[in-house]
Amino acid sequence: MSDKENKSAEDKEMWERIAARPEFDSLLAAKRRFVVPCCLFFLIYYFALLYFVGWHLDLMKKPVFGKINVAYLFALSQFLMAWGMAWLYMRKAATYDKAVAEILKSETR
Known about the structure:
- This protein is mainly α.
- It contains four helices and two strands.
- The protein has helices at 3-19, 22-55, 57-60, 70-107, and strands at residues 63-65, 68-69.
- A two-stranded antiparallel sheet has the order 1-2.
- Helix 2 packs antiparallel against helix 4 (70-107).
- The model has no long low-confidence stretch (mean pLDDT 91).
């Protein structure tokens, strides 16, 4: 067996040990509890613009500031929402990274 194949087999064994740990399962569950609702919120918010423009055009055409109407503000708010969600995920990902580091640290002992 070559060094590369040996390293690959060792990596696979280590991955299987890590994946079997309850800490790993709880990390995946925590990540899922955050990511799934965020994705659902994003999709609902995104398609809400299409819904309102398609079925509530009078509301969306309502002027707010001069020629800027509700539809423009809603569309611009989607950029803010996406940036906000990205910022929130970056903060949350830092906690996931710490948990991964702890799992790997305890595995290599």
